[in-house]
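Contributing new records

If you add data, match the layout below exactly. Sequence lines come first and carry their own label; structure lines follow with theirs. Keep one chain per record. Anything else will be rejected by the validation script.
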Amino acid sequence: MSDIRIGKISSVNYQTGMAKVLYDDREGTVTKELPYLSMNNEVCPPNPGAKVAIAYFSNGQTDGVILGTVFNQENPAGGSKGVYKKKIRENVFIQYDDATQTLTVHAPHVRIVSDNQIAGW
């Protein structure tokens, strides 16, 4: 039988795409490094301290995968219908609004790099 658990990221190994998870409800037990799930090869490691969902395989609590962060009071979704938002860091995000057909890139500095001419520029 598989198991789904909630824990907090303890540390991240950015080179391997793996992280350790801390379980407060298990006396501060920390897992071995587990891989975190990638959607469409997107590289977006969870931050230390982030609450995450972990799926363990039927062979016990040693092999599993970090499914992703969990929205909660410390990490609210803050979403809207028809709006896709990718939060990168606090106050840094990419957002697309279906209603206005507007793409917003919000960051202190934005750089666009292209090998070709960009239409409309």
